[in-house]
Structure formats: C-alpha cells, structure tokens
Amino acid sequence: MHITHFFTPMSGFAYLGMGALCALAQRHGVEVVHRPVHIGKVFAAVEATPPPLQSAARLKWRRTDMMRWARHRDLPLREQPKHWPVNADSAACMIIAAQQMGLDGTALASSLLSAVWARDLDISAPQVLTGLADELGLMGKELMQRTATLEVQQIYEANTADAIAAGVIGSPTYLYGEEFFFGQDRLAFLEEALSHHSAA
C-alpha cells in the first residue's frame, strides 16, 4: 500500500501539509507517490472556482486559515506571495522528470512549494527551477530539459486524468486504498486509516 499525493506545486495547502504527510508516511512505513496535476483542469472538471478567482471574503478567510496552520506547523509563510497564482506546469513536469530519473522527487516537490510560499520565487521561470534543483544537487539543467519531453508531458496529463477520474476536487488530495482525503487538514484522518490498516 502507498499514499498517492495529488497536488500542484503552487498549492499553499500542499505546502503546509508536505512535511506532515512525509512524517506520517515514515511513521507507518508507507511510500508517498507524488503525482503533480494541472489544477485548472481539475477545477474545471468539478466546476469549482479557482482560489484566485474567489470572492474577497473567501480569499481573506483562506489567508487567515493558512496563517493559522503555518503557526501550528511552525512553517514560514508569505501571506500574499509575489508569485501566486503562477503557471506551475514546468515545475510539475520537473518533479515528474526527477522521479523518472530516480532522483528525490519529495525533496524537489518540497523545495518548489516552499519557493512559492516561503521564498517569494517564481516557479514558472526556468532559471529559478534550475537553481532550486541545483540547490538539492539534482542536475537542474538536465531536469529542465526533460520537462519538455513527450514522456513527461504524457505523465502529467495522465496524472491529471487519473485525479479527475478518482474524484479529486483540489490540492492536496491524498489517496490511500479506496479512500481519499482532501486537504492537509484531513491528515489526521489519513493517519487513522493507516493505523487501522496496520492493525488489521
């Protein structure tokens, strides 16, 4: 069994949940499979309004909730990042490319999420992506080249199609067995499911 992590690299809530997700997976000895998706297509499939287009009141609540979770998890967080929303296609494909090359996709995904929400970096910029990968020792130039390959693009499309087919409504969503959990604030329920499976 493993946890499938459907997310977009520009997701603030995926950023807030990433460390906790990896920690609980480690506690229970399960692998996390990161599957970046095109979140715009996911929202369109479920007729949801993307967060940047929501009302001022909803955006205000979103920022408040995120700041509370950041304090709860002791994470740095820009309340209004300079580069959000952002085109996250290349960042998503870089994570996929890293996984294809047998590199540390978890570390790269964490770095990209943090880049948006803690460092005010533009993850649509090739030089930023290359630099972030290089910081991790992950051959940024080669990864950047692989993001445009047909194989990587097809995996990105397949991730998105599979997320929609599974009923995913936003980022992050965690799929474990037959159950899925939407939102990093549902990680306690995911851990409960893991505990029940371990005890069975």
CATH superfamily: Glutaredoxin
- Any guess at the CATH architecture? 3-Layer(aba) Sandwich
- Rounded to an integer, what's the Rg over CA atoms? 16 Å
Helix content: 55-70%
Low-confidence stretches: none
Tally of helical segments: 9
- Report strand order across the widest sheet: 2-1-3-4
Count of the domains: 1
Structural class: alpha+beta
Write the H/E string, N to C: EHEHHHHHHHEEH
List the helices and strands and how they pair.
Blueprint lengths: L1 E6 L4 H17 L2 E6 L2 H7 L10 H18 L15 H12 L4 H13 L8 H10 L4 H7 L3 H17 L6 E4 L2 E4 L4 H13 L1
Parallel strand pairs: 1-2
Antiparallel strand pairs: 1-3, 3-4
Helix pairs in contact: 1-3, 1-5, 1-9, 2-8, 4-5, 4-8, 6-7
Question: Please, could you describe this protein's structure?
Answer:
Strand 1, helix 1 and strand 2 (31-36) form a beta-alpha-beta unit. This protein has helices at 12-28, 39-45, 56-73, 89-100, 105-117, 126-135, 140-146, 150-166, 187-199, and strands spanning 2-7, 31-36, 173-176, 179-182. With 200 residues, it is an alpha+beta fold. It contains nine helices and four strands. Strands 2-1-3-4 form a four-stranded mixed sheet. It starts with a strand and ends with a helix. It has a single domain, classed as Glutaredoxin, CATH 3.40.30.10. The chain is 57% helix and 10% strand. Helix 4 crosses helix 8 (150-166) and helix 6 crosses helix 7. The mean pLDDT is 97.
